[in-house]
Write a structure and sequence with these properties.
The protein is 39% helix and 17% strand.
């Protein structure tokens, strides 16, 4: 049988990737999927450490079909990925970072999963090597799911198997104007457009490698880039998902992963000028996307920080951040015979602060970790109380008094 179209185009954007590139390419060569069904498109993004030369040596000796493209440095991963995607011929594409490596049988298992379920995206289990990858989505393998019915919104890196027809149908490419978070934007759009997503949780498909030199672990650059990333992802979600609980469920991701970290303990070290700039950048995002449904999905310390941003009370925020920095555990205040549990972070029931109790009210998933809370059927009563209390939270730029 003559294979006229590869099953997978493995796209590798490489910049200053030696010596990690050696194991990366070895992991592709070791795949159990027939080499005739794999093509590799490697883009050397202006490396000076021998990355391009090694790619060409590999292409000359391997049984895999390898295309090497060498170009001037583009400044980020989006350009090389887009170049590779433009050359891809496979039914599926997989974006492999040159620092990382594939798990054994990864491509064979992911292609089989996609073909068996006719899904457009396959999320393979990720294991970290000197890095900690997202953990919350690996509970069980899901043959067919979506971004609303699972926790995959918390894994938005580009290292997934994507059906190329989906990407071409919607002219999907990585946003080269973003210097961080470009993969989150791309992957979230793919999740939302996909006819089904599969998740492999019982086999490691990808090893996320932390480099000893610290490069490529996190996109470097100004903190303002994080706000660009949060804004882009929030805008995408708002454009693609109608207002309501489903949109709010997705908004949790940019709030928790991108926006609120800018108002963590490191905020205490910022100058007054930087603090004000951060507050100014956060204000329109909070006004547009902070809702009571988002609020109740957050842990108490996250909700409290977002509330204080919405209420424009940076003075109180600093007190909360000092407490968080101390690593102290807040006192648990249990009421209603164990049916309600409040976490007494700074300014809990402080009449001068005027923060509603509902901001400190732990949701069942968080309250269960504290003694005295009555889990089980009483959760229903707590949820009713929370829904009633959440009406007091400031939303869409409302004032603290509101």
């Amino acid at each position: 049988m003559t294979v006229t179209q590869p099953d997978v185009s493995v796209i590798i954007g490489a910049y200053e990737a030696m010596p990690y590139l050696v194991e990366c390419l070895a992991s592709v060569e070791a795949q159990t999927l027939d080499h005739a069904r794999i093509e590799v498109i490697a883009v050397d993004d202006g490396s000076t450490d021998g990355t391009g030369e090694y790619l060409e040596e590999f292409a000359a000796r391997t049984s895999l079909t390898v295309t090497v493209i060498r170009q001037d440095n583009s400044g980020g991963p989006s350009g090389p990925r887009n170049v590779g995607l433009g050359k891809a011929a496979g039914r599926y594409v997989f974006f492999l970072d040159a620092d990382d490596r594939l798990g054994p049988e990864a491509l064979e298992r992911m292609v089989a999963m996609a073909d068996r379920n006719n899904t457009d995206v396959v999320v393979g289990k990720v294991e970290g090597v000197n890095r900690k990858p997202p953990q919350s989505m690996w509970g069980s393998t899901l043959e067919r799911t979506d971004v609303f019915s699972s926790n995959i919104k918390f894994t938005l890196s580009a290292q997934k198997l994507f059906r190329r027809a989906l990407l071409e149908r919607h002219s999907m490419r990585f946003d080269e104007s973003l210097w961080t978070g470009e993969d989150a934007l791309f992957t979230m759009e793919a999740y939302l457009r996909a006819d089904g997503v599969s998740l492999i949780a019982d086999h490691v498909c990808y090893y996320l490698v932390g480099r000893e030199d610290g490069k490529h672990v996190t996109k470097s650059g100004s903190w303002t880039l994080r706000f660009d990333s949060a804004r882009a992802l929030m805008t995408l979600i708002a454009d693609m998902v109608p207002e309501g609980p489903r949109r709010d469920a997705l908004m949790v991701r940019p709030f928790v992963v991108t926006l609120l970290p800018q108002f963590g303990p490191k905020f205490l070290k910022n100058s007054e000028k930087v603090r004000q700039q951060k507050l100014d950048l956060a204000k329109p995002l909070i006004e547009a996307y902070w809702t009571d449904e988002v609020a109740h999905r957050l842990r108490v310390h996250e909700r409290l920080r977002a509330y204080l941003l919405a209420a424009q009370r940076p003075d109180l925020l600093l007190d909360v951040l000092e407490f968080i920095k101390s690593n102290e555990t807040p006192e648990a205040v249990v009421e209603k015979k164990g049916r309600r549990l409040y976490l007494a972070y700074p300014h809990f029931r402080d009449p001068e602060a005027g923060i509603p109790d509902s901001v400190f009210l732990a949701e069942p998933r968080e309250a269960r970790d504290f003694p005295g809370y009555r889990a089980g059927s009483v959760d229903v009563l707590l949820r009713r109380a929370v829904r009633k209390a959440r009406r007091m939270l400031p939303v869409r730029g409302a004032s603290a008094a509101a």
